Please model this.
Amino acid sequence: MFNSMAGFNSFNEILLFPFSGKIQPILATTAEAEAEPAMIVAGVLLSLVVIYIASKAGGEFLNWLGFPPVLGELVGGVVIGISALNLVIFPESGADSSSSLIISILETTAGLNPDAAEATFQVQSEVLEVLAEIGVIILLFEIGLESNIKELMQVGIQSLIVAIVGVTLPFVGGTAGMMLIFHVSAVPAIFAGAALTATSIGITSRVLAEINCLNTQEGQIILGAAVIDDVFGIIILAVVASLAKTGEVDVINAIYLIISASVFLVGAILLGRFFNDIFVFFAGKFKTRGRTVVPALTIALLMAYVGTAIHLEAILGAFAAGLVLDNLDQTEVGRELEELIRPISDVIVPIFFVTVGTKTNLGVLNPAIPTNREGLVIAIFLIVVAILGKVACGFSVFGLGKINRLAVGIGMIPRGEVGLVFASVGSSSGALSPALDVAIILMVILTTFLAPPILRVVFGGEKAEEVPETSG
Amino acid sequence: MFNSMAGFNSFNEILLFPFSGKIQPILATTAEAEAEPAMIVAGVLLSLVVIYIASKAGGEFLNWLGFPPVLGELVGGVVIGISALNLVIFPESGADSSSSLIISILETTAGLNPDAAEATFQVQSEVLEVLAEIGVIILLFEIGLESNIKELMQVGIQSLIVAIVGVTLPFVGGTAGMMLIFHVSAVPAIFAGAALTATSIGITSRVLAEINCLNTQEGQIILGAAVIDDVFGIIILAVVASLAKTGEVDVINAIYLIISASVFLVGAILLGRFFNDIFVFFAGKFKTRGRTVVPALTIALLMAYVGTAIHLEAILGAFAAGLVLDNLDQTEVGRELEELIRPISDVIVPIFFVTVGTKTNLGVLNPAIPTNREGLVIAIFLIVVAILGKVACGFSVFGLGKINRLAVGIGMIPRGEVGLVFASVGSSSGALSPALDVAIILMVILTTFLAPPILRVVFGGEKAEEVPETSG
Model:
C-alpha cells in the first residue's frame, strides 16, 4: 500500500502548487482536445462502479472483523486511490490523466481519444468532487435528523460538561502542541486541534448497543455528550474553515465567525417550527412521487447553500436542516422521511468516505524517506492527545456515585465520520500540508479502531447481544 | 413564456456553433480566473434547489389538473430555463454566464468573483449535465425493473403485433415525411421518426388504472405492447444515436448496430441468471448499510458503462440491468430493491426531466419570426403522424371479436418520458436543429396531454376509481 515513488512525486508537486485545494485550470494547454460529454459520463460511471466496489468490499470486510464499516470504506478508498492502485485520483494531488487508471481503461475499452484524456480527467474529477460534497451534505443532514433537540435538552448537565471538557482539552492540547512542539503555523495548528474535538455518535452508539450498554447511565452520558460534541464541532469547523480562507487568525474575525455560526444554528432551530410547518404542509398536500423526500432535500440543499453563501460551511446548513426537520419525529411524515433518506444516503455518502480515502497519500508517511518522519511523529502526537483528552473528559463527571468514568472517557474516543469531515474540509481548504492531512486521517482511523475493543473491556464484558442489522 | 429575443439570439448562436452538443472549452479566455470549488458547489446546490422547486410546482399543478406529473416537471423546466426565467441554462445553447440568473445570484449573495463567473458557470453546467444523465440512467433502470420478462413472454402475439405496427408506422411515416416533405437530411429525419415510436408505460398504465381498465383485454394488450415498444425503442435509439455520431447513414453500419444492440440486450438477459445469482449472493451476505441498493446500483452503472463503451447508449445498459435484476421479483431482496430504488429515483430523475425543459427553447417556434414558421409546421406534422400511426396500430389486432380497437390505438399515443429521452439524446448528439428538437418535445408534450382525456372517452366513461397515491 506504500507507494513511495508516487508519494514522493505528488508530495513535491504539492509543494510546487501550494494552492492545490483549488481546481486547476481545465485546459492546461489549449492544444489539447476538449472532453466529449459521453466520455465524461463514461468516466464518472466507471469511477462510481470502482468506488462502490471499494466501499462494499472494505465496509463488509471490516464489519466482519468487528470494526465500524465506515473505516472499511475509507480503507477501500486508500486501496483504489493515490496510495496504491491509482484508479480514482484527483488533480489536486498534482496527478494528471496519465497516472489515472480509469482514464487508461477509458482509452482501452471506450475509445477515449488520448488528446482529450487530460480534459476528460479534469471534468470527471470535478464531477466526483461535487458528488462527494453532496455526499457529506447528506451525511450531515442525516446526522442532524438523528439528533433530537428535545432529548438533547434532557440529557442534562453531565453530558454538557463532558462535551465541553472533551472538546476543550483535545482542542487546546492539539493546537498548543502543534504550535509549540512542531512550530506549525496558527491556521493548520488550529485545524489539527479542531479535528481532535469530534466524537462519532454513530460508531459509539453502535458499539454501546452491541455490548448492551446503551441504557446504562454511562451510555446515556456518552450519547448526549457525543451529540453536543457534534454541534460544537461543526461550529468550530465552520469557524476554522473560514479562517483558513484568509490564512491568518484574526481574533475579532474569529469571534464574529463563532457568533455568526451560532446565530445561524440557533436561528435555524428557532425558525424550525416555521420550516417544519412549510415542510409538513407541502408533504401533506403533495400527491406525486417524491412528495416527502424532495421537499426535505430542497430545504437541506437550500440551507447548505445559505451556509456556503454566508462563508461558513455547506454542511453546517445541512446539519441545521436535519436538526430542524427532526422535530417531526412524532408525525407520520417525519418517520417516513428518515426511512426514505436512508437509501439515498446509502448510495451518496460512500462516495464521500471513499473519496477521502483515495486522496489519503500514505506515501507521505513512508518512514524510509527522512523528510517524512516528522509527519509520523505528528501523527503519533495527535493520536496520544486524541485519546488522553477524551479519557480525561470522562473524569469530569461529578456527583454521581459508582459511575464508570473511564468507560465514559473511552466511549468518547472514536472520531469516525465527523473526524473525516474535518480532515476533508481542512485538506480542500489548502491549509493542511499533505503530511498533516494524513496524520489527521491516521488519528481518525486509529481512534476509531481502538475504541470498540477497549470499550468492551472497560464495560466489564457484559454479554454481547446481537443488534438487528440495519437493512438498506 | 415566449421570450423572442432570447430565442432569436441563441438560435443564431447555435447556427454559428453547429457542434453545440459538445462541451465548449472551459476557459474561453485564459485571462479569466479559475472556478473556486466552494462556488461550484454553491452553484450546483442553488441550481438543484431551483430544479426541485420547479419539478414539484409543475408536477403537482399538472397532476391536480389531471395530467401526468412528468409533463409538469418538463413545463417547470421550461419556465426556469432558456425560454423564460434563465435561471438554469446551459452553455450548449450558446448562453454564457452573464445570462445565467443563478450566477448573478451567486455574485450577489455568495460573493462570487465576477472574473470567475464564466469558469464557475461552465463547471457547474457540466456537473448538472452529468447529474441529469445519471437521472435518465436510473429512470431506465427503474423502467427495466418494472418490465417483467416473463409477463412480456405471456402477453402474446397480439401485443407483439400492435407493438411492431405501432413502431413501424410512425417511424416510416415520420422519417419519410421529414425527408420528402421537409427535405431534412437522413440522420435528423431518422431521429424524428425514432422519437415517434415510443410509448410511455408509466402514463398509459396510470390512466388505465384510474379508469379501472387495466385488466380489460384492451388494457392488457396496450400494456404488453408498451413494454415491447420500449425494448424496440431503446434499440432504435441506440442505433440512431450511434449513426448520429458519424453523421451519415451507412446501411451496413446500421445493420451491425441493430445486431450489436440486440445481442447486448439479449445477452444481458441470458446472462441475467448469472448477474442475479451474484446480486442475490452479495445482497444476502452483506450486513452493512446499503447492502441491497449499492450492489444493484453498481451492476446498473457497470452495464451503463458497457453500453457507452461499445458505442451504444448508457441507458441501454441501465435498462438491461433493470430487466435482468427484475427476475428477482419473487425473492424478498427483489421486492426490497424496488422499494429502495424508489426514493433514489424520486430525487435524481426530476433533474433529467427539468433539465430537458430548461434546454427547450420555445423561442425558436415563435411564429412572429418568419424563419421559425417551418419549425411550427414540422411540429404539427410530427404530432399528426404520432397520433395517426399509433391509432392505426390498434386496428392491427386480429381475431378477437368485439374488442375496442380504437381504444387500443389511443392507449398507445402518449410518448411521455421515453419520448423525452429520445429528444434529449438527439439534441445532445448535435444531430437535431433547435427547431426540430423543440418540435419533437412539443410532439411529446401534446401526445401525452391528449391521450388521457381521449382514453377516458373511448373507454366509454367507466366510473373512475381512485388509485392509491404512490408515496415517496
